[in-house]
């Protein structure tokens, strides 16, 4: 049973749920089975959030085991580190180089963030792709496009066609932002590909 | 489709006429999705008991009704559930209990399959999204056929699973209208004793169906070496771990189809039971003398199942997977927290500064218990803050006098705080109740409640005012405060804490999450006067963090609410324009 496992991780409110839904819709458009598990409720209030997406011919269950993810899409660096153990050998982490410090408790120095996090990610991730999605989204004129840019970067590695993705994006977003969404997605496909080691 | 959306779809296909319930993770999206079907009457109830009772009335009127709640909500609705079990139904009545194994968003992880057994009602358990749809649809027919409310037991990983769903047509079904039947619907002891026999007859008939139904309780025939009896979300894990084993999936799980399980057991060499939380099926099997090779003892007693746990149980050890080893790196935790600009932050900052004893309640503001605010002493269940504040203040001795407050949100107050406030009044409590009036049910994503003035579809609705309700009940001291004004709020709290009778302080400020409140301009920091006392970061705001030993502001997150400005004694934080 060939199943591809993709884990999305970030901080509540970053659009993690939206990204995973677009991926699920694209997979359905390709005629694949999908199971996805998401987080609602208390965990969303500024806490860490993850969604598990599993696609394949037949997917019996919805949670990815540690070491079972083929791809990790992280919207924030600390959340990339927190979920790195989900990646299996040869797995790829797409990481947006954004730092959102967790809630500070005091003014003690360095009480919040993990020091040397970039190097840690570069050393520990089996394969790492930095996706400067926040900068690109700002250039696209809408910070909310971060999730589509990350999806674009991811899309090159999945057995889904551009038509599948376009169908999913058109289904998920209202008409007036569809073109902007598609543009951001395509930017993720092309711009990230340029500096990607393979 | 989301599992919860699939329940709504199934109910719509069954021609449900009415949906009610109270928001609670992981159940909330069911009613929200049902409200998108325009020909269904859908409404939020102030609590689960009321929601259940309105649905029961609709059922007596002859229409099909759905009532939704989270697992602990069924505790609130247990009274009507147990009695309606004796009464049976008019139109089909389906009761959704969304359990939360692992306690993602809950105060306990009770397994409500035990409640179906105790209340003697039928129960069905979907294992995935598609089953959530068709089982809901068919549950209405079961309800009418066996004259029983049907408990639809969901769990977090089915509610919040997205999967592929086949859409069915709507069934042909017509209401028979209200059928008067006093001995059936009036639960006097003499009637109830008669109905008690009907309950047993009904369960026997339902068991006969469960025993023979390949639809509800299918057997997946595989190897005869290993057989697994399972239900709910556990089925998917079993299927994935042992694709060639024989599996009996119990979808109609009360009454338990014991003879079907017995003959399945006889067809395999080793029989396992894999179920989440309590050994509900396993105990019934063991009591019936069915030999179980492995069950409950193979799993942790708490938490939800996952692939590695089921692998360990069925294969002896988890499949080896290479994972990234971070060595000694400690990843800082990121607990949930009050939003930047949240109106609760100032209140809890005051509670901490005033060293109050705080009996808390269920909602976003429960996060006031976490560091650095750490300003809540208890949180038990919906509405408990009020009664617990009364009890603690009365019996805590001089130390707690003038120090004890209950703190409750507006939705929770309408849910079950009102009877407790009546208790405070008539039993002469001197405690103070703080009601956080933000105009909706925030934690579950902003559902309207009796104080919102909107219904589930966003249309205007009658609006109850918290302060007016308290005065009408007989509270003499009711004060409204602006929770963003720390000094003013503190003065009112001090006065009311000293009052020798019950007093209510209503903190009025709408929740920011709806996007109805424009974001203010961010706070300005003047590092040259900062003495690094840390008071500002101790209000626990995501927009304010430490950088090189000084406070640093994220202007994108800051809403300019001014709480940090008011706690800064050196004047190093200011609102733009020197306000």
Number of domains of chain A: 1
For the secondary structure, the number of strands of chain B is 21
Of all protein chain pairs, which has the greatest interface, and how many residues does each chain bring to it? A-B, 61 and 62 residues
- Could you tell me the CATH topology label of the largest domain in chain B: Rossmann fold
Strands of the widest sheet of chain A, in order across it, are 2-3-1-4-5-6
The pLDDT mean of chain B sits at 95
Descriptive notes:
- The complex is a heterodimer of chains A (198) and B (579).
- Chain A has 198 residues and is an alpha/beta fold.
- Chain A has a single domain, classed as 3-Layer(aba) Sandwich (Pyruvate-ferredoxin Oxidoreductase, domain 3).
- Helices cover 39% and strands 21% of the residues of chain A.
- Chain A has 7 helices and 6 strands, in the order E-H-E-E-E-H-E-H-E-H-H-H-H.
- Chain A has helices at 16-29, 77-82, 117-124, 133-140, 146-155, 162-172, 175-194; strands at residues 3-11, 33-37, 48-56, 69-74, 87-95, 127-130.
- A 6-stranded mixed sheet of chain A has the order 2-3-1-4-5-6, with helices on both faces.
- In chain A, helix 1 (16-29) packs across helix 6 (162-172), helix 4 (133-140) crosses helix 7 and helix 5 packs across helix 7 (175-194).
- The model of chain A has no long low-confidence stretch (mean pLDDT 90).
- Chain B has 20 helices and 21 strands.
- Chain B folds into 4 domains: 3-212, Rossmann fold (3-Layer(aba) Sandwich), CATH 3.40.50; 219-315, Rossmann fold; 344-514, Rossmann fold, CATH 3.40.50; 524-578, Alpha-Beta Plaits (2-Layer Sandwich), CATH 3.30.70.
- The model of chain B has no long low-confidence stretch (mean pLDDT 95).
- With 579 residues, chain B is of the alpha/beta class.
- In chain B, the strands form 5 sheets. A 7-stranded mixed sheet of chain B has the order 2-1-3-4-6-5-11, sandwiched between helices. A 5-stranded parallel sheet of chain B has the order 13-14-15-17-16, sandwiched between helices. Chain B has a 4-stranded mixed sheet with strand order 8-10-9-12, with helices on both faces.
- The radius of gyration of chain B is 27 Å and the shape is globular.
- Helix content of chain B is 35%, strand content 16%.
- At the A-B interface, helix 1, strand 2, helix 2 and strand 5 of A face strand 7, helix 11 and strand 19 of B.
